Amino acid sequence: MSARSAKGSKAQRDALRLRMTALHSSVAAIAQEMRVAFGVRPREAWRHAHGWSLQEAADRINARSAGDAITTDTSMLSKWEKWPEGTGILRRPTVPILVALADVYGCAVGDLLDLEDRRALPEMDLAMLNRLDPSEPNGTQLVVQAADESLTFAQWVEASNVGSVSL
């Protein structure tokens, strides 16, 4: 049995996610641990890190892309997750699809790719992805960043000598 086929049961993935969530781990850390523990591709790891089924993720992608030409179902999403492994029936996710997935999962496009993916990408797609600046937050990343900054400020305020009435 190869590392890639030992994907763990739903109960095992849920238990890992709950343990890490209880330890205040980020979704990115949970996704990375899913990859290590269960040998799944990056896109599948991000879905599992959120605790979503294929149907839940497909619904979120379709809702996010309402007006775009990107729609999916569980079968296609599964193929995007497994690419570039397997036979010719698996489909390569395009750059717009990777951008949609990253937006839904709240990560950078680069987080959804590993070395194997990058080697299999067409040169033009790889060049386009390299132009995307992961250091510039967008969409969900901006919301997460703002929430983190608000939490830090709230913790600082609570630690100061300013009372609740003054605030």
Written overview of the protein:
There is one protein chain. This protein has 167 residues and is mainly α. The protein is built from nine helices and no strands. The protein has helices at 10-22, 27-38, 42-50, 54-64, 74-82, 95-105, 115-120, 123-131, 140-159. α1 runs antiparallel to α2 (27-38) and α2 crosses α3 (42-50).
Brief rundown of the structure:
The chain is mainly alpha-helical. Helix content is 60%, strand content 0%.
Keywords:
globular, disordered N terminus, mainly alpha, 167 residues
Summarize the topology.
Blueprint: H1 10-22, H2 27-38, H3 42-50, H4 54-64, H5 74-82, H6 95-105, H7 115-120, H8 123-131, H9 140-159
Helix pairs in contact: 1-2, 2-3, 4-5, 4-6
Radius of gyration: 18 Å
Tell me about the largest β-sheet.
none
Annotation, overall tally of beta strands:
0
Distance between the termini: 60 Å
Which term fits the overall shape? globular
Residue runs with pLDDT of under 50 for 5 or more positions = 1-5
Assign a percent range to the helix content: 55-70%
Q: Given the helix and strand composition, which structural class is it?
A: mainly alpha
State the helix count. 9
Order of helices and strands: HHHHHHHHH
What does the average pLDDT come to? 84
Strand content: under 5%
